[in-house]
Structures are given as C-alpha cells and as structure tokens.
Amino acid sequence: MSRIRGTGNKATELRLLKVFRANGITGWRRGSKLPGKPDFVFPKLKLAVFVDGCFWHGCPKHGTRPKQNAKFWRDKITGNKARDRRVNRLLRKRGWTVVRIWEHELTRKNISRLHTKLNVLVS
C-alpha cells in the first residue's frame, strides 16, 4: 500500500469542471504550483479552489473512519485537516481567496447551491 501513489481526485475534479463549463465559468487553470496544489486556480481573481474528498478530509457529514487500523486513519485524517488549515492560512497571507468544496457538494441535489457559491466568487 505504501508504494501506491495517488494521482489526485480526478473524478471529483472532472465533475467540478463540468459545472464550470455548464455555467460559463471561465478563467480557471489546473496544475498550479501554489502551496497545497489547488485543483483549480483563477489567477486574475487570485482565487484557489480545492475539491476535498469526504473521506480524506474528514467531512463532518459523510466522513467515515475505518475500524481496521483505527489509530492510523484517525491520525491520517487529522493530519490532512491540519495541513488544509495551514495551506489556507498561507494562501490567504499571500492575498489569495481560498474556496474548499466538499465532494458531496458536487451531486445533482446540491448543484444549485454550488452554482450560487461559485457565481458570487467569480462574478
């Protein structure tokens, strides 16, 4: 397991990409070298968008904790949340606006709320 390297949260990023395209939201870039490697960056607006998986980032609604190796997973998820807070602080110090979108916000049921959230930021 330790040798398996992740390649990002591609499925959730693609879902957000579809939302951007469907709503005519432009000006974003992927593959930024900013701290924390935001999933999408709007350079002109200095806006960094992260798509956080409910499991990996400890979503209060949908985050689960495996019973096997419980201490490892508790420490891992707690560490991820601490890193997210550090990255948010660092980017804000540099003048960036940081938006974190939960994986569950990309469902059809929540799409209108997400659309409103994004339009306020990029309008």
What structural category do the secondary elements indicate? alpha+beta
Major sheet summary line: 3 strands, mixed
**CATH-derived topology:** Endonuclease, Chain A
Give, in order, the helices and strands. Answer: HEEHEH
CATH architecture: 3-Layer(aba) Sandwich
Strand order of the largest sheet: 1-2-3
Q: What is the rounded Rg?
A: 15 Å
Q: What portion of the residues fall into strands of 2 or more residues?
A: 5-15%
Task: Give an overview in words.
This protein is of the alpha+beta class and 123 residues long. The protein has a single domain (10-122), classed as 3-Layer(aba) Sandwich (Endonuclease, Chain A). It contains three helices and three strands, in the order αββαβα. The protein has helices spanning 10-22, 70-93, 111-122, and strands at 40-42, 47-52, 97-102. The longest helix is centred in the middle third of the chain and has 24 residues, at 70-93. The radius of gyration is 15 Å and the shape is globular. The N and C termini lie far apart (43 Å).
